[in-house]
Amino acid sequence: VTEESLVARLTGRRTCKKCGFGYHITFSPPSREGICDRCGGELYRRADDNEETVKNRFEVYRQQSEELQKFYGATGKYKRIDGERDVDVVFKDLEEILSE
Questions:
Q1: Helix, coil or strand: residue 13
Q2: How much is the pLDDT for 31?
Q3: Phi and psi of 49, rounded to 5°?
Q4: Which of 21, 51, 63, 82 is found 20 to 30 A from 35 (Cα to Cα)?
Q5: Of 90, 71, 92, which is closest to residue 82 (Cα–Cα)?
């Protein structure tokens, strides 16, 4: 998944303060903006779901995972999946890899 897509996914998350149910402003929005469909509670965005923090998380991830990718890549155990595709296709790819 591209960093741009991941930033959009993470910064679009919203959670109900009352019941904890999760929404996404693009992929699964509530019926009424800022209001939980289940309990009527107020929706909020976590403080760390802002663009700057999310991008920093990816930079830290890249730095910390680079050696692991090299190691497992050399063993043939590191697999890449295109996570931009439909969720059912991605899931099928994961099942196939895990069954190897």
A1: strand
A2: 98
A3: -95, 30
A4: 51
A5: 90
Given this model, what pLDDT does residue 44 score?
98
Q: Is the dihedral of CA 59, 82, 14, 22 positive or negative?
A: negative
Q: Which residues of the chain have pLDDT under 50?
A: none
**Whole-angstrom distance, CA of residue 44 vs CA of residue 30:** 12
CB count in 10 Å sphere of residue 53 = 13
Task: Specify the residue for token string 């992929």.
Answer: 27
59, amino acid identity: E
C-alpha separations of 24 from 40, 41, 46, 95 in Å: 16, 15, 12, 26
Q: What whole-number distance in Å separates Cα of residue 25 and Cα of residue 2?
A: 19
pLDDT tens track for 25-37: 999 999 999 999 9
Q: Kindly report the length of the chain.
A: 100
